[in-house]
Design a protein that fits this description.
Blueprint lengths: L1 E6 L2 H4 L3 E6 L4 H15 L5 E5 L12 E7 L8 H11 E14 L5 H4 L3 H4 L7 H10 L2 E8 L5 H10 L1 H9 L4 H19 L3 E10 L1
Helix pairs in contact: 7-9, 8-9
Amino acid sequence: MQIYRLKINKNQCLGCNVCVVSCPINFNQLKQSSSRINESENSIDGINLLNSTSTSLPFPNESVDRILALESLQHVKHLENFISESKRILKKHGILAIAIPIVTKKITPIVDLGRLSMTWSSEHYTTDYIKLLLIDNGFKILELQNIGSMVYDPLTNYYIRNRDDVKNKILSKYPSYVEKILFKSLQKIKQLSEKNVIDYVLIKCETH
């Protein structure tokens, strides 16, 4: 896991300390992220890159105003550890914002997801499970939105409309079967979204 700690000046966000969490999945992504942060450090004061795990966030108690975990927590195996660590480092009334793909009920992946059980290899959390973890760890949920129809359908439709262009770019680096798997997976994502098997949730909560 990579964590960016960004101290934003008062003109930007009332002097907030913001913790941004991301999960690069291989060495190249780690290297690219580090390069981008190094570039940002030249233009933004107070931004730092840290490598850590979700079970031990390298910050003192009550030292962070906001934590943003966008499109990352589905890759965290023990979500409860991340939630409890977030509670520990957030100040009173600190904000935790989460964007995460979810399943709408407890599933048997190979049965309910089909080919996605292989291509969607991250965790399959439900909204109820995430809410329970947040509440049990002392968070108050301020806002929750299900936006799967605004994520999966447009993404798949865009790919279908622009498949030729995207396919050519993929084939310049990867074998043809990679593009075929991607295309079939996107079709399956749209199908499961329309059947309300999967969704995408935005959650904003604060510490008590």
